[in-house]
Design the sequence.
């Protein structure tokens, strides 16, 4: 992919990257690459950089798709252990962990609410907060060998960065109870079967498949993608009348010159 704009420095092999998350924008696709070796562990710097990257991608009117992937074998293994160790020992530290989790919830909610379509490419382990990041995305494509799960109950904890809520919405109560209460870690093949991911590919084909999905979606009108996401969100919100949201969105789209040109072209071809 030829980058029109690259944000974040690519480190030479073996070097520590200058940023835990890099951003490269190519036309309608913003490639968000997790690059904090060895396992893309989440800490304050990681979360701050994620917010920066989202700011930049959302401000670019060309971007239709946020493609989140990893430069490591692991997608994201969740919270940084040293980060947890520093805070776990005291009451004040534990309170700070709750505050940090709230910030993580807010960052993941930004991805979920974004008008951009988000795609997670998961080639390796995505556990705890790492899998919660993927669950916040609209779409997930996995390697059959990937390992996915929310195993926090093993430590007497719970997946509190939105994991209990999103997993239940995505795959239903029965599957969420099985995986969260059983602290199960499953393979990518089973994740697709359970509805937690939409596509699966062999490891050597995963990147190409994710790229083709991102490019296909990026070729669609941004306003239509935005309104479609809004309507899907309304279907999950009991406070909204999704049918009215559909009508509002349709009216807004029909008023656009881009939509009018595309519909006219389609009708002319069909005549």
Sequence:
């Amino acid at each position: 992919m030829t980058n029109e704009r690259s944000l974040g420095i690519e480190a030479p092999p073996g070097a520590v990257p200058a940023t835990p998350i890099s951003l490269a924008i190519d036309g309608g696709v913003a490639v968000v690459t997790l690059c904090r070796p060895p396992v893309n562990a989440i800490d304050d710097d990681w979360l701050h950089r994620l917010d920066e990257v989202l700011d930049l991608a959302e401000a670019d009117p060309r971007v239709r798709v946020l493609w989140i992937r990893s430069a490591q074998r692991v997608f994201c293994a969740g919270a940084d252990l040293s980060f947890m160790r520093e805070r776990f020992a005291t009451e004040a530290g534990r309170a700070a962990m709750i505050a940090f989790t709230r910030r993580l919830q807010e960052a993941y909610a930004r991805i979920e609410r974004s008008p951009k379509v988000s795609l997670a490419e998961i080639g390796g382990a995505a556990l705890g907060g790492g899998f919660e990041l993927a669950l916040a995305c609209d779409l997930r494509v996995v390697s059959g060998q990937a390992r996915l799960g929310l195993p926090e109950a093993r430590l007497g904890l719970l997946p509190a960065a939105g994991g209990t809520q999103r997993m239940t919405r995505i795959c239903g109560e029965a599957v969420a109870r099985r995986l969260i209460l059983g602290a199960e870690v499953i393979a990518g093949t089973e994740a697709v079967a359970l509805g937690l991911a939409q596509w699966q590919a062999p490891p050597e084909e995963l990147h190409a498949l994710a790229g083709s999905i991102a490019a296909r979606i990026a070729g669609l009108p941004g306003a239509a993608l935005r309104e479609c996401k809004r309507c899907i969100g309304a279907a999950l919100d009991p406070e909204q009348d999704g049918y009215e949201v559909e009508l509002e969105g349709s009216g807004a789209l029909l008023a656009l010159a881009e939509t009018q040109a595309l519909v006219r072209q389609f009708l002319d071809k069909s005549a």
